[in-house]
Amino acid sequence: MTAPEPVLDVRGLSVRFGAHPVTHDVDLRVREASVLALVGESGSGKSVTALSLVGLAGGSAHAAGSAVLADGTQLVGAPPEVLRAVRGLRIGMVFQEPMGACDPMYRVGRLIAEALSAHGERVSREAARARVLTALRAAGLADPERIARSFPHELSGGQLQRAMIALATIHDPELLIADEPTTALDVTVQAEILDLLRSIARERAVLLITHDMGVVADVADDVAVMREGRIVEAAPVEQLFAHPQHAYTRTLLASVPRLTGLGEGAEAQPEARVRARSEERAKDGPAAPHAPDGAAASNAQGGARASTRPPQPAGAHAQGAQGAPRAEQRGEDSPAARLHEAVVVHGGRGGTRALDGVSLEVPRGTVVGLVGESGSGKSTIANVLVGQQALTSGWAEVAGTRVRPGNGREQRRVRARIGTVFQDPAGSLNPRRTVGAQLAQPLRTHTDLGHGAIRQRVAALLDEVRLPAGTGERMPHELSGGQKQRVSIARALALDPDLLIADEPTSALDVSVQAGVLELLRELHDERAFASLFISHDLAVIEQIAAHVVVLRGGAVVESGGAEQVLRRPTSDYTRELISAAPVADPIAQARRREAARAH
Amino acid sequence: MSRALGYLRFAAGRLGGALAVLLVIAAASFAIFYLLPNNPAQLSCGKPCTPDRLVEVQSYMGLDRPWFAQLGAFLWGIVAGRTFGDGATAIHCAAPCFGYSFRLHTDVTSLLAERLPVTLSIALGALLLWTVVGVGAGVIAALRRGRAADRLLMGASVLGVSAPAYLVGLLFILLFGFTLNVLPIGGYVPLSESPGGWAFHLIMPWTVLAIINGAIYTRLTRGSLIEVMGMDFIRTARSIGLKESAVVTRHGLRNLVVPIATLVALDFGSLLGGTVITEKVFAIQGVGGLLLDAVNALDLQIIVGVTLFAALAVVLANFAVDLLYGALDPRIGAPS
Amino acid sequence: MKTTAFAAAAITAALALAGCHANDLDDTSGGQGGLGETHRGGALSILSSQTQMDWDPAKSQSLAITSLGLVERRLTTWKIEPGAEPQVVPDMAQDTGKASDGGKTWTFRLKDGLKFEDGTAIRAADVKYGIERSFAPELSGGLSYHKALLAGGKDYSGPYKGKELASIETPDDATLVFHLSSAYGDFPWIASMPAFSAVPKAKDDPQKYADKPVATGPYRVKSNASGSSSVLERNPEWSADTDEVRTAGPDSITFQLGQDPTVAAQSIVADSGDAANSFTADFVPAAQLAQVQQNSAAKSRLVTSGDGALAYLAMNVESKGLDNPTVRKAFEYAVDKNAFRVAAGGEIAGDFASTLITPGIPGRQDYNDYQAPESGDVDKAKALLKDSGQSLGTLTMLTKNDSTSVSQAEAIQQGLQRAGIKVKIKAEDSDSLAADATTGKPDYDLYLGSWQPDFPSANGNIQPLFDSSQIGGGNYNISRYSNKEVDGLIAQATEEVDQSKAQELWAKADRRIMQDAPVVPLIYTKNSFLHGSNVENFAIGSFPAYPNYLKASLKG
Fold it and tell me: What is the helix, strand, coil percentage profile of chain A, to 5?
């Protein structure tokens, strides 16, 4: 761990695209057999820094400064042929979204074999096959033959990311650059991949790029924090977490949503959070005039939050497969949404069961969190409720009305009672229409408000989501990710819905932005008391907003109950597994939990 | 369900749909024909034509029966063959009988068989030429995006897309046929007679079709390649140190095979229906010419027969595209 | 009558035009190009837009002097030379027929030594069989004047059901006797029609005969590929000694099929390679006609016919207002013939017309009952309209929907407008036009078209357009003109065996009809053709307005 010469020594690296500078004077030293985590939010320049080292930052990128490998090879300004020889052979790379990073046309084994022969090495077919299988096995894949034979789409994200790691390390490079390698993965899979990275780092240097402080705490030896193209702080991981020097580092640490009581760092929470929110507000757009930071802050205090929540009805909990919810006497009293014995089977008889007898209830005025990994049926439930997915058996209703696919008048009326917010705000907004026009559209379709009234309502909505009044005239591409998501929320709430379905609304956002959006949702909920089905894979996020939690796995309810109870005193092994796999942004606590999990 | 069985069921379903489409097309062409005020018997009646004679000719051609009865007889003829007239001059048209032209005294099936090699020659050659040239130009434009070569090719492709075949054909004839006098101005030499002459006579039609249709391929290739080259797996391919040429061919172009093959198959299908204008300009008598003549002469049997054949070609091409998808893109299996 | 021929006649006006001053040649005898010595040898090409050649005489509407005339001889044929009136002359027969029974019975004797291409002698029975098979519905579509003339023809439907036509007798191998249902003086012309060819019964397959007829003329069909070409080679059994009209110059004649008329004309203008040995079967398109005017080399190879088809405006004498002869006479003055000719392409499009019998037809008498300037006499028209006391609504005029026809129709429309007559143009494709004008309910008031007879007799000018029996049912009395006196004159002239007497009667009928003014004669249209520099004896007679294929030959 104390090799004098770093594997990669970056000094004063500045990258610009054309005339536009992106990073300034970046210094990085990646030590042998260790993980250097380069942390920052999107746009901070961390990926550009890494990619520019190997000449993959794009045609118009221009780097200045120095980046030297252990043997003295200078990467900055090196001719393309030199960089090509370095890529794969001496520096391997793993990227986010393994599904996108694999050419869908080829079998996985063929892709790895291609990497093997990319540098002119003559390898016999049999030898290549053997090496591919060995590499796959080394990446922790138990059935390398099958994996090698498979096309990317036939594998799970975790399997594929392992295969990509096998591909990146096939030439046993001295440095592995891992660019957000677990971001797109489920939490339990993420834990496995991080384990793999850790074991890889025993033999070589790893430059890990991530935005997730939990991940940093889990695997990094050293950390460099990047903001707006500059390294603001660099330190060994324990030191950084224990004594963050720079304000930004503290903000980052504070904005990480965490499961209280699980991570040991809970004591510093309230204060840090408030600050994080204020900063986010300042960055994301000016604060709404009537909502001073102080108000938001006081609202965000743990106690205040609980007290302002409407009282929870006694029967308001999701029920397993054991029984139907009670029928309500009046439509007014019927829950905002209800699923009874819902079964969805894809692909006819004998097909896969996306939902397997799910019954749950979202009481009026309550936020129900729906947790599970990909494929657990979270989004299927959302689709059923908005009428995009027919039930194979069972029934579903929203505000007392049965929902089913189709465009009948009744169904359209039900759908107008539901607001939806999705993961990718860019994808759910029309890029060619102004924000104001998009907010006005549902009002124009479903209400008989006049022109002026609609304009007033749009302005009020923008104000409610803390966006400046002028936002209405802007196009979506002029907005930041957080602002776009605020527009999505405003649109979802335009018709004052009975039910808000939020499907991973913060997953695509940076941590500090995520905190702001979560805060907004919480405030709006407090003000307007709509019921919400909040879908997330992130337990910490769920904990922050949901009163009730339903844990799904393989289309069935594993556990449900009050948030407190499910997250603090889980009764099922699976919930426990989920909780323990979520990394905690504290290297010491995380190391302890890891030990505990291993012992388990 | 096994993949093969799934495929079979999928194919059967598609086939059923295709048959329904063809049935509707046959019925529609019959119906449209009978909505026209013309009487095809009038054309075969002679000059002068007396009303008695007209009735006689009409009944011989079967035109005195209601249109749906004629349609039924026509469709049944495809399945089982049919006989026209009676006695010594009765004509048997064996299955699959796509009709019988009283004007040409030939069954439509033989006419198609006779004309198809001609159209096939034009179609295959032109398709090959424009695919190679169009895709090649698209690749160059995509890789030189924004530079002079790209702008030149894109400009040229706008011309290609918007140029009418008739005009381009005549200009080519004027230039290469008359002014330079290096290529024959038209006509067709069967491949079996003289492969050289065959190609020599087809150079101009191929080129004209390629200019007009290749431009679309250039645009498609350019757009798709630019898109593909921006995908994450291209970065992966570069990250393993692959040569740029290998990145472009193995990963860039490989991912264009599906959209291009789709276009090729569909274009091939519609080309088989006849390249009417090109055939006319270059005095080549293929399927398109057959149809054009038939329309001019109100030859119902040929019109319906060729229309059905052209529809069949398009339907089969679509069918082939669906099957191709499964073969060319591993992500697309048989939908179960 | 047949719509394609009708359409072709209409196209005559449409295509043989283009605004340019072509030949200053203005001889009313018509025709151009000369005939000289015929060199034997060479390969002649004829460029045609047609896509297939149908060599079956029963189905043919071919003129006696074009394609089928090279392969099949008939009982009589046409002697067509520039500067001379068309003549009917003996072909397989020794003379042009002997009439008896006042023109109801016609007797022909075949020449000695006539042979089919396979060497067998041609017998009277072969000619009889050839005529009989033209009655079969399987082989319908050819020129059919004889079908109504021959006694019992109405109920006869061909030899394939085992029946013969009793009105044709063959007392011996060389004699044919035709019994007609009524006297018909022009029967010698009828005997020149394609159906009067010889067909050996033993070699007849009605499905295949169109590709491989048994030749009697100087050429036989070597190959016939639909869509590409039809090749004729010499028939060794043909003897020039028995044939006074065919010169049989080229060793072979190839019809190049499916040629775009523009490309064909262009290649002959360029005159390179095979084009020097070629001529166009189609009229030269307007654009090339203009181009040729600028090219003296090509201009010398352009041959323009004399006055051909009659372009005319027909008035439906049954429609309201137009049933008044005074109103129709007003039209004779109101129409602007000059504007019409300009729209048709100017002087080269044809000469102004005033008669129904077209120039070049024997016995035509020139007259003009409605003397007026070429652009009309509007005052006179207005006066006549006032006299009639009729008020006309908006009249519907049928015409073809190509651009030339429409601009011609507009010229007529504007001309009539000057006299306060409102016209609505209804332009249709040729098939719909034929249907609307000749069958069903006559929903039109005016019709703009043209007409060329099928044989050079005034009969062909007058009878189809003005006999009351030719109203509706697919026939071409589009004016729906019915006058007992005219019907009588037509019957009398038709039955008259003495040609000079018949011609007098036709001329009388011509003038009598024009007194009733059912049509406005506009112009006699001209056609232009191009030939290569090595083609000679390429000539157009005063009738028809097509080149004489039987004489065309190549330079040595």
Answer: 45, 20, 35
C166: buried, middle or exposed (CB in 10 Å: 19+, 13-18, 0-12)?
A: exposed
Task: Say how many C-beta atoms besides its own lie within 10 A of residue B140's C-beta.
Answer: 19
CATH of the domain at C511: 3.10.105.10
Q: Name the residue among C213, C121, C98 with its Cα closest to residue C174.
A: C121
> By percentage, how much of chain A surpasses pLDDT 70?
85
Q: Which domains, and CATH codes, for chain B?
A: 1-103+299-336 (no CATH), 116-298 (1.10.3720.10)
**Which chain A residues are closer than 8 Å to B236 by Cβ?**
93, 95, 101-103, 164, 167
CB contact under 8 Å between B236 and A347, yes or no, is no
A97 in contact with B, Cβ within 8 Å = yes
- Per residue in B22-72, pLDDT (tens digit) is 888 888 887 777 766 667 777 777 777 777 888 888 888 777 888 788 888
Q: Give me the count of residues in chain A.
A: 600
Question: Which member of C143, C161, C473 has the closest CB to residue B46?
Answer: C143
Neighbours of B329 (CB within 10 A): 18
Q: Round the average pLDDT of chain C to a whole number and report it.
A: 88
Nearest to C472 by CA among C430, C440, C434: C440
Residue of chain B nearest C142, judged by CA positions: B46
C346 Ramachandran zone, left/alpha/beta (phi>0; psi -120 to 50): left
B288 vs B283: CA distance, rounded Å: 11
C531 located within any domain: no
Indicate whether C238 belongs to any domain. Answer: yes
Residues of A in contact with B330 (CB under 8 A): 104-105, 107, 151, 153
Say whether B241 and A88 touch across the interface (CB within 8 A).
yes
Q: Is residue C555 part of a domain?
A: no
CA A3 to chain centroid, in Å, comes to: 36
Query: Is C216 within a domain?
Result: yes
Q: What is the mean pLDDT of residues A78-96?
A: 91
Residue C368: give the domain boundaries: 310-525
Nearest CB to C144 within list B48, B115, B174: B48
pLDDT digits (tens, 9 = 90+) for C485-510: 999 999 999 999 898 999 999 999 99
**C330-353: per-residue pLDDT in tens?**
999 999 999 999 888 788 788 999
Q: What single string gives the DSSP state of each residue in A262-326? A: TSGGGGGHHHHHHHHHHHHHHHHSPPPTTS-HHHHHHHHSHHHHHHHSPPPPTT-S---TT-PPP
Cβ of B229 under 8 Å from any chain A Cβ? no
pTM above 0.80, yes or no: no
Least confident of A22-36, A497-511, C228-242: A497-511
- A314 shares contact with chain B (CB less than 8 Å): no
The answer regarding whether domain A275-584 maps to CATH 3.40.50.300 reads yes
- Phi, psi dihedrals of residue B72, rounded to the nearest 5°: -60, -45
Which region among A349-353, B109-113, C380-384 has the lowest average model confidence (pLDDT)? A349-353
Q: Answer yes or no: do B285 and C258 touch at CB < 8 A.
A: yes
Residues C70 and C218: beta-carbon distance below 8 Å? yes
User: CA–CA separation, B82 vs B100, rounded Å?
Assistant: 9
Most B CBs within 10 A among A103, A111, A172, hence the mutation to make, goes to A103
Shortest CA distance from A111: residue in chain B: B237
Q: Across the interface, do B242 and A89 touch by the CB < 8 Å criterion?
A: no
Q: Which helix H or strand E contains A111, and what residues bound it?
A: helix A108-117
Identify which of B240, B257, B330 has the shortest CB distance to residue A87. Answer: B240
Q: What is the ipTM of this complex?
A: 0.76
Specify the pairing of strand A175-179 against strand A91-94.
parallel
Instruction: Specify whether C144 is located in the same domain as C237.
Output: yes
Of C439, C248, C441, C476, give the one whose Cα is nearest residue C356.
Answer: C476
